[in-house]
């Protein structure tokens, strides 16, 4: 059993210990596992990531626990040492302490205000999430929950850890039941919350700094709440504040007016977009009509051939769909963008296989694609030979398909 110094003092970032064993790490033979008689390195578990740092100057990249023994994964081998110096990455540790205690506080606020239990917890590299037993969550409820949680932080309540006896445990107002039966550790937030936990936490709630709920979503009948604490909350506020200021400056409005102004812009854009679509449809109808009227007539069939510069492929498809509504019509359309894009189509009363025609010529632009006997489409990289492809397709129609 490894003695857990992080349970005695979570603020300890430097210590000396005795290396008991050094073994090759089973999951990665290029690394090694070190076991010491006592350690301040927190092992992965309970939703909290492991500590990083150094043992004897060598990097600790992972820490885990099995049957009470804590294993430290090193990138280099170590030697048996009865007095090795160990250093914890304090910034990482303190961040985890802020987030973990913040989770206790936020979960207790959900429980106190809405009887919503926390059934899931994950401390990630950027955000923290909890899953709570609640059917829905509104902005007004979030405001209330944040207010209570942050008031607990501002009150700077004492945070203590206890190992109660079985009888003592029965008398504690636990927020949730322990998941183990022996060595149960209880984290107490003074007169506010009692929760079984093996993680690391600051000694007072004030060290959490701030709790901010970022977003939430319904997931598997529960609500997943994403939040940040402490320095993470400050960083989150900083980039959002910068963006809102830059946006409001560009729009020449006050920052507090940004949402209303953007919503107005979106409404206006929808109206303008609708108007543009109407004009675009009218223009396209005119273009289609002009293309049909100027088409070459070959053996009583209208042959429409056109290469556009920069026309969007969706517009090209739309024009093809309009042209094949005319009787006895064959349309060969193409557009030049970053590559050549093509649509071949025909009206239903034309008995030729457009798909076969397309396959015969698409290789001329190093392209690919396909379709049905009525319509085929695709693209290729050889823009320079697009004119040649269209010429070849017209010749094949006249000589092989409509001969």
Describe the protein in words:
By secondary structure, the chain is of the alpha+beta class. The protein folds into 4 domains: 86 residues, Elongation Factor Tu (Ef-tu), domain 3 (Beta Barrel); 153 residues, Threonyl-tRNA Synthetase, Chain A, domain 2 (2-Layer Sandwich); 40 residues; 107 residues, Diaminopimelate Epimerase, Chain A, domain 1 (Roll). The chain is 35% helix and 30% strand. The protein contains 9 helices and 22 strands. A 7-stranded antiparallel β-sheet has the order 2-9-6-7-8-4-3. It has a 6-stranded mixed β-sheet with strand order 17-18-19-20-22-21, sandwiched between helices. A 4-stranded antiparallel β-sheet has the order 10-11-16-15. β18, α7 and β19 form a beta-alpha-beta unit. The longest helix has 36 residues. The mean pLDDT is 95.
Explain briefly what this protein structure is.
With 403 residues, this protein is an alpha+beta fold.
What keywords describe this structure?
single chain; 403 residues; alpha+beta; Elongation Factor Tu (Ef-tu), domain 3; Threonyl-tRNA Synthetase, Chain A, domain 2; 7-stranded antiparallel β-sheet; 6-stranded mixed β-sheet; 22 strands
The description of the largest β-sheet is: 7 strands, antiparallel
Please give the radius of gyration in angstroms. 34 Å
CATH topology of the largest domain: Threonyl-tRNA Synthetase, Chain A, domain 2
What is the assigned CATH homologous superfamily of the largest domain? Threonyl-trna Synthetase, Chain A, domain 2
Strand order of the largest sheet: 2-9-6-7-8-4-3
Number of strands: 22
Number of domains: 4
Arithmetic mean of pLDDT = 95
Fraction in beta strands: 25-35%
Tally of helical segments: 9
The CATH architecture term of the largest domain is: 2-Layer Sandwich
**What gap, in angstroms, lies between the N and C termini?**
91 Å
Residue share in helix: 25-40%
